[in-house]
Amino acid sequence: MELYKDILCTLLQNTAVEVRFPDLSLPCDFFGTVCYRTLKKIKAVIEDNTLDDPACFERIEKIMEIFEELDSKIPTRHDFG
Q1: Residue of 80, 79, 3 whose CA lies nearest to 41
Q2: What's the CA gap between 73 and 71, in Å, rounded?
Q3: What is the pLDDT of residues 40-65, one digit of tens each?
Q4: How many domains does the chain have?
């Protein structure tokens, strides 16, 4: 649910907001269910402090930059300076 919040906050930061809920009905694919589950799994791997693979440092760094663009930072792993 944290990733949903991060994505929604990023979308709302640069948007005029009018909050209304009359007869709220969300489509089944509200955030692209499959994509969301995939991103959530990737984020969980990056947040797993038991994993250590220095050979993949650059790849992991690029993935973390993508999450940062979504304002979904991973502070426990992004201490590279």
Answers
A1: 3
A2: 6
A3: 888 887 777 777 777 777 777 777 78
A4: 1
